[in-house]
């Protein structure tokens, strides 16, 4: 992907419903709310998103060696026909930590009536970003599916915030709305659910918001991935990615947007339905093999 993420995108509320359906509440990243951002972006049949713009290099948000564990070199590269992807620059042993990073942006869920507050909470978080961090965030992929599903109500709430809080009107308001809608789609595409484990009635955690990450946002999806993501602590927004098997130098890094466990437990149709929120039909090796096997069974 040029810049997708995960993140993981279903936004945090949609992802909560999805995970509940497969018995894995809170496991799915809300990144692709769904996981490009401009009109030249497109979703490819492989589950990668392509874009003509080059995503930012992994930079200031990455947690450096000495702060948490040890890291293995990875870099964002062009993938012919597929936009961007994250690659290992040297051999990485199984279970090694590839990288860990702080979020570019965190937007709290906004209370029980999420539908009434989510847009305002997101806009408040976006407004607090520095110009450099905001530009990095806006370089992430915004799924066309997410753009299409921004409701009239959400647009009205955004317009009210820009007029009432920021005092914008006319051309400035139109420009802010266009940028805000794209930013909201990028957030819903790439945000990962942040969980609170303090409530004893919810041992699997309660979703309290969504976080978007720079490097993680460049990782493509595979249903049987070679890496997995996790939080570095039960109250941490620091996200880490580790190798699930030995990874060769030059090999592309993949995670499952549906969560490591969900990818193993869900059938082909379930996975495709879950990934539809990112706007693509997965054509990873696992899906191709299962589709061929199902077709062979139907022919007999």
Automatic annotation (TrEMBL):
Parts forming coiled coils: none
SET domain location: 72-258
Composition skew (Low complexity), residue ranges: 40-60
InterPro entries hit by this protein: SET_dom (IPR001214), SET_dom_sf (IPR046341), SET_domain_protein (IPR053185)
Region (Disordered): 1-66
Pfam families (UniProt xref): SET
Stretches with biased composition (Basic and acidic residues): 12-24
PANTHER family xref list: SET DOMAIN-CONTAINING PROTEIN 5
Protein name: SET domain-containing protein
Organism of provenance: Apiospora saccharicola
